[in-house]
Amino acid sequence: MAKTVCIVGTMDTKGIEFSFIKSQIESSDVSTCVVNTGILGEPQLTPDISADEVAQAGGSSLKALRDEGDRGNSVAVMAQGAATLIAEKHAAGEIDGIISLGGSAGTTIGTTAMQALPVGVPKIMVSTLASGDTSPYVQSKDISMMYSVVDIAGINRLSRQILANAAGAIVGMVNAETPEAADDKPLIAATMFGVTTPCVTKAREILEAAGYEVLVFHATGTGGRAMEDLVKGGFLAGVLDVTTTELADELVGGILSAGPERLEAAGQASLPQVIAPGALDMVNFGPPDTVPEKFSERHFYQHNPTVTLMRTTSEETAELGKIMAHKLNEAKGPTTVLIPTQGVSGIDKTGQPFDSPEARDAWRKNLTAHIGDNVTVIEMDAHINDDEFATRLAETLLDSLK
Questions:
Q1: Average pLDDT of the segment spanning 333-344
Q2: Which of 62, 68, 156, 268 has the fewest CB atoms in 10 Å of its CB?
């Protein structure tokens, strides 16, 4: 069956360039579905989905956006509308991949639509911004960013080659067949930091010996979001959420937050999950001169020249205990919290710089005070990186998976 590529973008201002992309794709016997997100004028390329349809899906109308004249709001509405419609088309089996091109507004709209699609769906964004920090556009999805080199303003000798490459890439991606491995195993996600590596490594070995494949995510904000996107996509059998440190960055204001919904996806999906307070002793910043002035009197540890760690206080860990309890109380599947009373990271134990029994106890007391009957809580007189704690984590998850 022929594949279909969704082409999304501003057909009023970039219609010539999108027409070239469309012709290149269709010359390879791949169909297209053109989505117009431009509101300024009439489309230079006739779309399959009009700008007014996109605006309505985004909660407005083309006339209202034109009358309002607010560029920022127009981009937000069209981005949301495109994401909604394109996700619906993919769910209906009507598109197999997506491509877009543009500057700042076009990149925002195009990648917002791409983020609404599951991991594994081919996604290519040709952008004038692709040589800089692309993290706001890629986030936790497998979006391929291609730098346009020149501005997207007509077809010339250079842009013709770049856009042809992009069209060829999306054609190749949608036509590529992913080989099925005969020994594919059920997937488990685990979260890790350098300071929880011994724990996760030991637990991973036990889970793998039991017949599971373990995907390890670095708890850097993006890592937590990527893991939870896989949960939502139905890829996982269970979650070993050892390193919940991203919650501390979200609460206190560090640079590695995974957003306010972290620790919710597995529960909503009814997946078995085992949770530990890994690295809740720290909030992450960049080099020392990037730490906000308001934290100047706090306790710091220089992890390396580009990473500065700040010790969470007892008040902060108490609040984290309450936050985690409320999130886990909503879980629909088997949920267990394991508490290592001797420390939650490689630098939170006797003789190490972040050792604080008071902060650990504040988290434990507030978690247990607010946790519901649907969550099992197990306390162990151990450090998070002790073999016996890691073994208990893995065995508890294996029991839940049964």
A1: 98
A2: 156
